[in-house]
Amino acid sequence: xxxxxxxxxxxxxxxxxxxxxxxxxxxxxxxxxxxxxxxxxxxxxxxxxxxxxxxxxxxxxxxxxxxxxxxxxxxxxxxxxxxxxxxxxxxxxxxxxxxxxxxxxxxxxxxxxxxxxxxxxxxxxxxxxxxxxxxxxxxxxxxxxxxxxxxxxxxxxxxxxxxxxxxxxxxxxxxxxxxxxxxxxxxxxxxxxxxxxxxxxxxxxxxxxxxxxxxxxxxxxxxxxxxxxxxxxxxxxxxxxxxxxxxxxxxxxxxxxxxxxxxxxxxxxxxxxxxxxxxxxxxxxxxxxxxxxxxxxxxxxxxxxxxxxxxxxxxxxxxxxxxxxxxxxxxxxxxxxxxxxxxxxxxx
Length: 348
Ligand SMILES: Cc1ncc(COP(=O)(O)O)c(C=O)c1O
Hints:
InterPro entries: Ala_racemase_N, D-amino_acid_metab_enzyme, D-ser_dehydrat-like_dom, D-ser_dehydrat-like_sf, PLP-binding_barrel. The chain has two domains: 3-11 and 234-340, D-serine dehydratase-like domain (Lyase, Ornithine Decarboxylase, Chain A, domain 1, Beta Barrel); 34-224, Alanine racemase (TIM Barrel, Alpha-Beta Barrel). It contains ten helices and 17 strands.
């Protein structure tokens, strides 16, 4: 079956590019002596997680408990949840998960650490904990090495200190390396062994070898790449595996055409760029605006006609994955298979 037969809007995943992206990153990690723990929030598909592990990844990263449960159900058995898990209900689910898989989880406060200590004590489960450190990303993470040491020393029983994790700002590798060096030296002075130093982010993936002390890296977007990664210099357009197929449904003016993909397909993420995606066959046409189910294409000339189809590289592939129940695996323009996005919407 050819992609021309598919109803639009739909998501196409170029399987040849997926395989090449997985291999390229794994080869790079192997060559530079760190492990890869890919973040599955990009694809949310168990068979892709298995492909990443079969290629050599040490395990996977999930952002949410719900994603981790889906992946555990599918047989993934070494999972990092890079998130503070808070509240009795979620801690109970965390303990159940720790009985099924080798589990690691993040913490950046005494509140979180106390919850982990309690659930480990009351259920008898064991799991590893990484202390999240803010090394310039400006999101979660303790702000000083001393805070990290306090949290590490407070963990007890089945909630075992295993190391530190950080999620740097895009382009923030140098600052992250500096901060990590300070943190690791403080742990050394305190005589506390740090087994795992987990860093991440596709924009700076190819600089991972310049971060001394980092033992693992958690790229997510690298499996699909997207327009933002091309802009960051981490990929070329030919590496982008996820595209959206859309149809022109209206052309009210010579300089305006409307496609059947709006925010519910492309999402409203701009990530600092102009336009809501890149049309592969029409690089000079701007996706200038979106409403829920309409995308506005603008150009002085060269706009496609009603009924014509376009393929779009989205600004941000990960959020598009969360919009669709199913994606189509393709090789070139041949449809190979339809895959359910099993962990889609599992944000709890
Ligand atoms: C904690 C954490 N690690 C790794 C990643 C992967 O980042 P990227 O998709 O840029 O590779 C993310 C992305 O949101 C993240 O939040």
